[in-house]
Amino acid sequence: MADPAECSIKVMCRFRPLNEAEILRGDKFIPKFKGDETVVIGQGKPYVFDRVLPPSTTQEQVYSACAKQIVKERSLKCGKFLSIKELSTAS
């Protein structure tokens, strides 16, 4: 049987900040974060994930938390270095 540490599925939940239209409409950001793993929506029950990423999380932090280890492991298995980089330009 495979080692659960090597095969486990991790569930991460990222929350984006309100966009400009939502702010202008007067929407409020409702989720409340309880540590790195729990989020409560309004007065509801807590939801627990392997990791919760709040709106202040950068793309680099998302990559480090969610994909970096997978890319590293896959690179080692295929014998080649694999890198993922997002390029963007302002217009």
Description:
Keywords: ATP-binding, Cytoplasm, Cytoskeleton, Nucleotide-binding. One of its GO terms (molecular function) is microtubule motor activity. This is Kinesin family member 5C. Belongs to the TRAFAC class myosin-kinesin ATPase superfamily. Kinesin family. This protein is α+β, with helices and mostly antiparallel strands and 91 residues long. The protein has one domain. The protein is built from 4 helices and 5 strands; from the N terminus they run H-E-H-E-E-E-E-H-H. It has helices at residues 4-7, 20-25, 59-66, 68-78, and strands at 12-14, 31-34, 38-41, 46-48, 51-53. The longest helix is centred in the C-terminal third of the chain and has 11 residues, at 68-78.
Key terms:
91 residues, alpha+beta, three-stranded antiparallel beta sheet, two-stranded parallel sheet, 32% helix, flat
Mind sketching the topology for me?
Blueprint: H1 4-7, E1 12-14, H2 20-25, E2 31-34, E3 38-41, E4 46-48, E5 51-53, H3 59-66, H4 68-78
Parallel strand pairs: 1-5
Antiparallel strand pairs: 2-3, 3-4
Domain Kinesin motor: 8-91
Family: Belongs to the TRAFAC class myosin-kinesin ATPase superfamily. Kinesin family.
Subcellular location: Cytoplasm, Cytoskeleton
Oligomeric category = single chain
**How far from one another are the termini?**
52 Å
User: In what order do the strands lie side by side in the largest sheet?
Assistant: 2-3-4
Number of domains: 1
Question: Could you say which overall geometry the principal axes of the C-alpha atoms support?
Answer: flat
Largest sheet: 3 strands, antiparallel
Tell me the number of strands.
Answer: 5
Strand content: 15-25%
Which regions contain 5 or more consecutive residues with pLDDT less than 50? none
Q: Could you estimate the helical fraction of the residues in percent?
A: 25-40%
What is the arithmetic mean of pLDDT? 82
SSE string: HEHEEEEHH
What class do helices, strands and sheet pairing give?
Answer: alpha+beta
Protein name: Kinesin family member 5C
Domain Kinesin motor: 8-91
Family: Belongs to the TRAFAC class myosin-kinesin ATPase superfamily. Kinesin family.
Subcellular location: Cytoplasm, Cytoskeleton
